[in-house]
Amino acid sequence: MSSNLARHFLLRDDVVFLNHGSFGACPRPVFETYQAWQLELERQPVAFLGRDLSERTKVPRVALSAFLGTTSENLVGLVNATEGLNIVAQSLDLKEGDEILTTDHEYSALEKTWAYVARRTGARIVTVKVPMPLVSEAAFTNTLVEAMNERTKVLFLSHITSPTALRFPIERPITEARKRGIWTVIDGAHTPGHIPLNLDAMGVDFYSGNCHKWLMTPKGSAFLYVRPELQGLINPLVISHGWTADSKLPDAKGAFGNSPFIDELEMQGTRDPAAWLSVPAAIKFREDHDWTRVAADCRELAQETARRLQALTGLEPLSSPEFSAPQMVAMPVPEFEPAEFSKELMARYAIEIPVFKWQDHHIVRVSVQGYNSKAQMDILIGALTDMLDLQGKKELARQHG
Known about the structure:
- This protein has two domains: about 30-285, Type I PLP-dependent aspartate aminotransferase-like (Major domain) (Aspartate Aminotransferase, domain 2); about 290-400, Aspartate Aminotransferase, domain 1 (Alpha-Beta Complex), CATH 3.90.1150.
- The protein is built from 15 helices and twelve strands.
- Helix 8 links the parallel strand 5 and strand 6.
- The N and C termini lie far apart (about 50 Å).
- The chain has helices at about 20-25, 30-45, 45-50, 55-70, 80-90, 110-120, 135-145, 170-180, 200, 260-265, 275, 280-290, 290-315, 340-350, 375-400, and strands at about 15, 75-80, 100-105, 125-130, 150-160, 185-190, 205-210, 220-225, 330-335, 350, 355-360, 360-365.
- The strands form three sheets. Strands 2-8-7-6-5-3-4 form a seven-stranded mixed β-sheet, with helices on both faces. The protein has a three-stranded antiparallel β-sheet with strand order 9-12-11. A two-stranded parallel sheet has the order 1-10.
């Protein structure tokens, strides 16, 4: 891995930052672009927000759509993936008895979103248990397909899961759902910039992802993709200047010259669009630094770190490598109290890393990005060795009174 990449980031050098997956980290050149946009906004806010915004926001839509395998008419910029998925969930015409099919690995904020929708509409959430460890695409797909029936209206899946850092093989479930007339809604919060995407080829109905994580844009930039023939179903959470009452047809021009799908979601009144406008700079930063190679190095280091910890604990991994997120691995460790364990890792070793309990597993989730190094992974393994040894001694002391 290139040793000089860390100098391009703004992270504190007194913290071993192994948690890119939570909120990302923005490279300095991209952050400077973000600040330049903010400054331009403040210099002439009326022109920026009142006259020029629609044309400005088209530029990142064009750049990002090419990066994601679609066209600029099929996606719109938002603040985060949770917003995008809320827009979809609250737009779909669900009723009592309809079923929303999902898994037991979903992000808690979206579990709450669908619970809210179910309470409001009378729809029912059906949660399937993914066969663990995840080592078979067929087992994953069959589990979902077997749960589909005539009442299933929505298939909601993460592409890369947050708690377990798994890369779900979602392609065949999407195809099967489409055959049955089931809407497919995909949480891609961890996906853009992490794995290649071709949204049109995937055949997904609705897909929302964050740019501020693995694409490394500033915080507050995300997108919602909607297949053209379904864009008329989408309603904004907030009715504002972009709302077009007279037409919801995909090819109609809205109040700001785009389709109603784009105008109604983009033109939400006064806000700071600088993070979204910085998307092209983030894509260029990746190109300038050969991020395909960087990501491959990160993937190798992440898997190596997971193997080292497995050798230490003897615990089975949550998946085979092909179903692990390339640069993010959820590593099982012996039982611990998550809040205390996290506090000790920061206090003793200055390591920023998420630790938590998921079902019966206690997990340390490591992210590896271009600014990380083998030396940092050595610090992590050393710290976990010490911490787990200390945990063992405490347990022996408790057992012996």
